[in-house]
């Protein structure tokens, strides 16, 4: 069964400008995009994709979207280093017993987190 997740990006705070700098996929799938809308097409359950955003302030985040056991899941990782790419990080959600592996099993359709570095900023997937 094929799956599709559509992601629309809204920036509500004007003190930083985030731009998508990487689209990656774990297993079999593809991203397509137009403007600030990104579509992840996956050939089946057990795969995921990530969008990395870099800000003009030096902040970096990755938003992760996937399907596991036929249910959608998502996560957000903040305070990334320049070397933390989606291609590097995505396999971590498939390591059982880790915090990221548990996120996949929790199958959250929505998620919010507030980063503390370099400044407090709220990120949400709804």
UniProtKB/TrEMBL annotation:
Pfam families found in the cross-reference section: FB_lectin (PF07367)
Signal peptide start-end: none
InterPro entries linked: Cytolysin/lectin, Fruit_body_lectin_fun
UniProt xrefs under SUPFAM superfamilies: Cytolysin/lectin
Protein's name according to its UniProt entry: Lectin
Protein source organism: Serendipita indica (strain DSM 11827)
